[in-house]
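Quick one, probably user error.
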């Protein structure tokens, strides 16, 4: 229900925003907020192009949420987001993830039984473990609108 409220507000923002230089984002940029959680389905080609362009230019992949959200009467809505990266899927219950990094990104991961997990990734451990599953889409955005958490969406 909260996500539906957000989509309604964001769609309203696409049509109600006064494009003032430096403050409001473009329609394609604001549409990223709507299209990203769905993986840019059909009808989101403009948002996808804007998303790629923003990344290539070294800008945040998403515009400021406050530049895209308005209430039903045109008032600003308090919204924010947090970007992140999670390379591996969560481990099963009772297991903890240990990663081996090469450079700044983890290249290998293993899920170890929680009660005997080593402090770091180890190839030959006597602790029961299994290979961690890589995420197909490791980047995420967590979103809040008016203090309500909407969720975490991977892209």
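Nope, works fine. Designed sequence:
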């Amino acid at each position: 229900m909260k996500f539906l409220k957000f989509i309604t507000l964001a769609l309203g923002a696409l049509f109600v925003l006064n494009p003032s230089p430096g403050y409001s984002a473009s329609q394609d940029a604001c549409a990223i907020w709507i299209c990203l959680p769905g993986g840019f389905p059909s009808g989101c080609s403009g948002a996808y192009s804007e998303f790629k362009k923003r990344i290539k230019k070294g800008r945040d992949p998403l515009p400021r949420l406050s530049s895209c959200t308005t209430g039903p009467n045109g008032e600003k809505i308090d919204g924010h987001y947090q970007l992140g990266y999670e390379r591996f899927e969560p481990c099963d219950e009772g297991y903890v993830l240990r990663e081996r990094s090469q450079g700044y990104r983890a290249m290998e991961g293993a899920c170890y039984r929680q009660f005997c997990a080593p402090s770091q990734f180890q190839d030959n451990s006597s602790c029961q473990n299994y290979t961690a599953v890589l995420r197909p889409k490791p980047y995420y955005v967590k979103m809040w609108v008016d203090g309500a958490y909407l969720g975490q969406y991977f892209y």
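Residues 95-131 form one domain.
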